[in-house]
Amino acid sequence: MTRLSDSPELEDLVLRRVLTSPPDDFVRARLLLAKQLVRLLTGAALVLVASTPPKPVDLDAAMTMDEVNGAIRRGELATGEPVALRAIGTAMLLRALEERTSPAGTRALAIFGQN
Q: Is pLDDT above 80 for 6?
């Protein structure tokens, strides 16, 4: 599945259409941090909803979103079931952490902190 957030070309096209000027580094940093925050909060909400009572999350054992999608396609996880929701939420938390600790995430925080 292709998502707008995973396609730099489409993301750039949308930014150029929405903004009155080409996006600068600050706008791109804000967008990256906003996407991280959405992943973090959505992931946390899914994990909380899927676990009663809430259980600790082990990001070292977490599946990626591609792995979760594959497990759903193979019938190993059922869409809407608590186990699948927890797997999706954990994958989102993992992605938020990976993006935050990536060079792009570190740079975005530095740019955002300067303005």
A: no
CA-to-CA distance for 96 and 105, rounded, in angstroms? 9
Which has more confidence, 62 or 114? 62
pLDDT in tens, 36-88: 999 999 999 999 989 878 788 899 999 999 999 999 999 999 998 999 999 99
Could you tell me which residues come within 8 angstroms of residue 99 by beta carbon, excluding any fewer than 6 positions away?
A: 32, 35, 36, 39, 105
Tokens of 24: 């600068």
User: Distance (Å, rounded) from C-alpha 57 to C-alpha 111?
Assistant: 30
10 Å CB burial of residue 47 (0-12, 13-18, 19+) is buried
Which domain range does residue 18 map to?
4-114
